[in-house]
Amino acid sequence: xxxxxxxxxxxxxxxxxxxxxxGYFGAxxxxxxxxxxxxxxLKAEIEAVQALPEGSATKGVLLSQIDATVRKYEETCQxxxxxxxxxxxLVMGILIGGGGIALGTWAALAGxxxxxxxxxxxxxxxxxVIGFFYELAGGRAxxxxxxxxTPSQAGVAET
Length: 159
Description:
Blueprint: H1 3-30, H2 34-51, H3 57-81, H4 87-110, H5 118-136, H6 139-147
């Protein structure tokens, strides 16, 4: 194999590698749901209360914090149970990302001045893959639910 053909093959498959790496990190960030995080927090708070001696002033503060966390956990579970994904956003992510991969692969295999098409291909791949995983994680519905959270609902104990 010539050096030029090896370079073309490596360059042709690099859009796929970019898409896979971006997708991996996107999935990794959205893997754990908010309810899982709240449950871990709740367990840690309960363990902290159990570790405190009876009659401790801090115990009352932690108990009110646990109550707030339980309310937040209940709200989060209700939101996750009614969770909807936008199919159009998922399809657009696939189309934009797939188009970027196709454009990048074509530009790499064509070589020469066609390589400048990568200027469009790489952003399309990144936007498409990130957009797909954003919608997969809930997209606007998830943001809207997070924006309506008040400090007392966020698990902050009122003093």
